[in-house]
Every structure is written in structure tokens, then in C-alpha cells.
Design a protein that fits this description.
The chain is an alpha+beta fold. Helix content is about 30%, strand content about 20%.
């Protein structure tokens, strides 16, 4: 099975299964002499970790990161960084009924059809648990561009929608990553009800990125928006992606669009223009419902925990393009203006 690597100069390869010994990531292309802080990495992982809220899956994992290579005396060496997180709270027996059953919308059937074998315990590589490796990589990407700020939040779960989107990155996202206290409580009650019934729900995540350098993106096929789209759509359950006005462009006139600098979401012609980058991502309801959900440990909605993953993937893409731009600039004649 190929397709486990992402990026060109900042390249990550994730590995491991949901119910295997451990999961992890190899990060290649990370510059040397960046300061590593284990506690800061743990804080990022805790934002994604299961079992911290009543609307999460009850699976409880410490997600303690173990450094295997690439770091010495809390500094990156410039060599590949390898970090693993061990699985400690699997209940593989919960998945025995799924050995011969397939969840619509999940990778159960298609994996078996493609490879002739699958790890049905927790979904194997198709499990959302794989995303722990992405959050680790996102932490290291943040070391390369510390001025970069990625702020993701939930704008909708099922029928519940934010009335107003936050204006800055300092708005408190509350206990399940919704920047509105009243809506948060409504959504919690809704998801508790879903969990009790074996139901699930989808929704929308918004992402605002500030501090992105100007000029990132490589047309024609490596446009910044194209790589951001691939990164986000690679996240389990992500089924829709838009930049700026997104699908609203379908009914807006040119005169309406041209007069709104924010319409393009900080990317023009596939290249960052230095403005805020704004994305919206649609996530489908989780595939495990009914008796399968009631008899196992599953999230009734992925959105509360996926916010950290969305931010991590954005940082990975932007830092990869930043390093590519820096490499390009290094070949320019010294008298060439940028």
C-alpha cells in the first residue's frame, strides 16, 4: 500500500494501525537547530486525543510521544525525525462483528476489494487514529514558521450553525471547539443524544490562516489551494473543501467578487497574496451507527477532535511550500528583486 507520504521538501510519512503496537511519523526535510519542547508537543496531541469529553469516543489513550531519531539536546539535527505513539487501550474484540460486515462510507469493503486483506480492528490505517501522526508533524511544521497561525473551529454540526464567524484567532473555542458558548451547549446535548441512539452527525469546520508568506504556490499543478485541498480531503471523513467564497462563487457576479478582497481566501492564481487564507471543510457523519456504535467505542461526530488535525495539515502544506520557495529564491541572481 503506497500513498503514506505527503510533501516535497517538508515530507512526512505516517505509519501504524489503530489497533497495532503503535503509530508514528517520519519527518524528512526539517531544518536543523530548531528548539523542540516535549510538553508543547503533548499539548497539541491532547487537543486531538480521545476520551476527554462525554461526546468523544470512550477510548482513552495517553498519546505519549516517544522520540526515536532526529533530536539531540532538544534541538533538531536536520536528519529525519521519527516519533511514535504507542496504543495502550485497544479493545479489538469489539470489532469482531465487523470482520464480515462493511460500514457504508468507510474503507472496510473497498480496502478488501483492492488488497484482498484488511485489518478490521478499528479500521486499521483508515481509522481516524492515524491522524495522531499528522498532529505531531504539524507541531514540527510550526517550528519552521512560528509566525504562522492556523485557527480552526466548528461552524456547524447537524442543524446547529454559528450565527457569526469569529473575527480573530483569540476567540475562545470552548470545550468542543465552537466559539459560541450557547451553541456549544446545544451541540453537546445533540451529540449526547446521538451517542445514546447509536446515531452520528456531520458538520462544517472553518479554518483561518494568518502569517502565511506571500508567493507560496507552484502553478500549474502545485497551486497552494490544490495542495491544501489534497491535504484536507486526505483527512478521514472530510468530503468537501472550499477556498474563500467557495461554492458561493456559483451565484456571485464578477462585479460582486472583484469588489471584495477577501473573496479569494488569500490565494490568487494558486499563489498566496499575504492576506488571511480562509477555508471551509465539510465532514460527513461517522460510518459506525446503530448497534455497531452502541456495542463499541466510537465518536458520534469527528468534528470536536478533528480541529487540531486540520490546523496541522495546513501548517504542513504551507511550510513545505515555504521551503520550496526558499530553495527557488536561493537560485535567483543576487540583483533580482522579489
Amino acid at each position: 500500500m503506497s500513498g503514506n507520504s505527503f510533501g516535497q521538501l517538508f515530507k512526512i510519512t505516517t505509519f501504524g494501525e489503530s489497533h497495532g503496537n503503535s503509530l508514528g511519523v517520519v519527518i524528512d526535510g526539517l531544518p536543523a537547530n530548531l528548539t523542540f519542547n516535549l510538553d508543547d508537543l503533548k499539548k497539541e496531541l491532547k487537543r486531538r486525543a480521545p476520551g476527554q469529553h462525554k461526546v468523544h469516543t470512550s477510548r482513552a489513550e495517553d498519546d505519549h510521544p516517544e522520540v526515536l531519531s532526529g533530536i539531540f539536546e532538544n534541538k533538531t539535527l536536520g536528519t529525519p525525525v521519527t516519533i511514535i505513539v504507542r496504543n495502550t487501550n485497544q479493545k479489538s474484540q469489539d470489532y469482531e462483528p465487523l470482520k464480515s460486515q462493511y460500514r457504508p462510507g468507510h474503507a472496510d469493503q473497498t480496502t478488501l476489494m483492492k488488497y484482498g486483506i484488511r485489518d478490521y480492528r478499528g479500521g486499521g490505517r483508515a481509522s481516524g487514529r492515524e491522524t495522531v501522526a499528522r498532529v505531531i508533524a504539524g507541531y514540527f511544521a510550526g517550528l519552521v514558521l512560528p509566525q504562522l497561525s492556523a485557527y480552526a473551529y466548528i461552524s456547524q454540526v447537524g442543524p446547529f450553525k454559528l450565527a457569526n464567524l469569529p473575527k480573530d484567532h483569540k476567540v475562545d473555542r470552548g470545550e468542543i471547539n465552537i466559539p459560541d458558548a450557547s451553541l456549544t451547549q446545544q451541540v453537546i446535548s445533540f451529540l449526547e443524544s446521538c451517542k445514546e441512539k447509536g446515531e452520528s452527525a456531520g458538520g462544517i469546520v472553518c479554518l483561518s490562516i494568518v502569517g502565511c508568506p506571500i508567493g507560496l504556490g507552484e502553478p500549474v499543478f502545485d497551486k497552494l489551494k490544490a495542495d491544501l485541498g489534497k491535504a484536507m480531503l486526505s483527512i478521514p471523513a472530510c468530503a468537501g473543501f472550499s477556498v474563500g467564497k467557495g461554492f458561493d462563487f456559483g451565484h456571485l457576479l464578477g462585479s460582486q467578487v472583484s469588489g471584495d478582497p477577501s473573496a479569494f481566501g488569500g490565494i490568487e492564481g494558486g499563489i498566496s497574496n499575504g492576506s488571511e487564507i480562509f477555508l471551509q471543510l465539510a465532514f460527513k457523519a461517522t460510518s459506525t451507527i446503530g448497534e455497531k456504535a452502541l456495542n463499541g467505542r466510537h465518536d458520534p461526530c469527528v468534528l470536536p477532535r478533528v480541529v487540531a488535525v486540520v490546523e496541522a495539515m495546513a501548517k504542513i502544506v504551507i511550510v513545505d511550500h515555504f521551503l520550496r520557495q526558499a530553495a527557488y529564491a536561493s537560485f535567483l541572481p543576487s540583483n533580482t528583486s522579489q
